């Protein structure tokens, strides 16, 4: 049985003071890790403080991005070596905002995913279509291409241990959300694509999150679906009360 995973994606929000206060309040009240994996993916400037504040607890820390090289003349980038040294557990890769605003390609995301595994960091690989693509009947081709290319060349064991976040772009930060059946059908399609590429065993093991205006009042409906194993949550993860309600709903 796949263990649920709830990961907050703080994006470019909060201050260091806010972030540490969040960690201090939440870390002792997170449900036991035997029930759910809980993480917050924070801006890079907060990571050292957060991993120190949450050491030995069931609240894990993730990064929001990572470069695909260990070191070098890459001004402003963050390497997997740096993240590993800080004790980061997860890294979000291929978020739609990275694809749209910074021109990240499937090939680049694939390279970063492989590098994360090399350094013992669990990648949360994001895929998702725009409203135009969905309404234009391109959902399947877009998701198949993103999933296949982003995971290309991974081993079966690696696929079993990564997390895929299906996030319809039209439902991120818009207040809109897919119905639970739409979300289930989409996550099932991602799983089917993985099965075709890596086999049934890998597809049954990989955890697939839904992301897109997930809130405490709708998460139970999503989590009741057989192919949804958690959520990648934006705005609802910025406040301790809301984040804890998400975890308690599992």
TrEMBL record:
It is an enzyme of class 5 (isomerase). Pathway: Carbohydrate biosynthesis; gluconeogenesis; Carbohydrate degradation; glycolysis; D-glyceraldehyde 3-phosphate from glycerone phosphate: step 1/1. Its EC number is 5.3.1.1. Involved in the gluconeogenesis. Catalyzes stereospecifically the conversion of dihydroxyacetone phosphate (DHAP) to D-glyceraldehyde-3-phosphate (G3P). Belongs to the triosephosphate isomerase family. PANTHER family: TRIOSEPHOSPHATE ISOMERASE (PTHR21139:SF42). This is Triosephosphate isomerase.
